[in-house]
Amino acid sequence: MKLFFDNIIFSLQRSGGISVYWFELMQRLKHRADVHYVNYPGTRYHIRVNDLGAFSYPGVKDFRLPIFLTRFLPFLTKLPAGSVFHSSYQRVALQRDVVNITTVHDLGYELGNMRTGYRRTIHLFFKRLVVKRTDGFICVSANTRKDLLYFYPFIDPATVTVIHNGAGAAYRQLANIPATDHLPGRYVLYVGGRDPYKNFEKAVKMVSLLPGYDLLIAGGKPLSPAEKLLLNVQMPGRYHARTNLSDDELSLLYNKAFCLLYPSSYEGFGIPVVEAMKCGCPVIVSNSSSLPEVAGESAITINPLDISAGAAAIRSLEDPAFRATKIAAGIVQGAKFSWDTCAAQTLDFYHDIHTRKFGHHR
């Protein structure tokens, strides 16, 4: 059984949850003798792809068309019969004698959270084609599995499994937190993108109600002029932004943070929540989608649209006993999520779906 991994996400995303998932999965499967990569001219665009060493392993190239077109099209190169094709971003091989695996990270487009207009229409058209060609689906949370089967009821539930994401080894409680002059004394941490459904504006307003706290914005794209205007109006001199962070740098931010504020209305999983818990950083999350599933009882859950409730949740962590309880619960909950486990379960799933389709291992 040969495994073909489509690295297209590294040409589409410089950083982000999907590329983190793919990088961690590839790190654990790349040494297998039966692994082959599908690489692209822009693969080196991603900030960590050189750490993976994808270009030093056996592979095939898919250079026919520009990447903005290739991302929507099926993989056409002939593969050995009985191979497994797993794309990092919604592509399938057209061959009938190949097993197609698709990881479903969220159903944001179906819910209307990600895009509207023609972009959403195009995305959903091609996604439906991928869904129909997929032999086995990996969902990153039970909530995502539920959403997938709701929007695509023709899928056989037996072909859909839940395999949770993890967090890298760098995300842990530091015994000795180094002194840093470049970080504020007490800050609330916001990690990730700032699309409308992420409720970044609400997060800013929550922290703005607490004069004793700064807001540190980590990851995502550089602040836009509109975002800077919002911050300067709501909390002048009390915000900081960091981009292109290494795992070690982000781990330090979690370790020093007063808490992680993650008020997204919809997430397929929410990797920053696990990273924070493993670092002993208290977590405040939305009471919707997969976030309660991932955070468990360790997090404070809020209505992400209720600004005063968000501010009160932050303030509640000033109680030392309550804070210690949440940190301890987060360490226990975070330990349930591992990239090693994710990789092992993924490999088992390949075999299960391969056997389901062909009746034996080729």
From TrEMBL:
GO terms for molecular function: glycosyltransferase activity. Signal peptide: none annotated. Pfam families: Glyco_transf_4, Glycos_transf_1. The keyword Transferase applies. It comes from Hufsiella ginkgonis. InterPro entries: Glyco_trans_1, Glyco_trans_4-like_N. Residues 16-166 form the Glycosyltransferase subfamily 4-like N-terminal domain. Keywords: Transferase. GO terms for biological process: lipopolysaccharide biosynthetic process. This is Glycosyltransferase. Residues 186-318 form the Glycosyl transferase family domain.
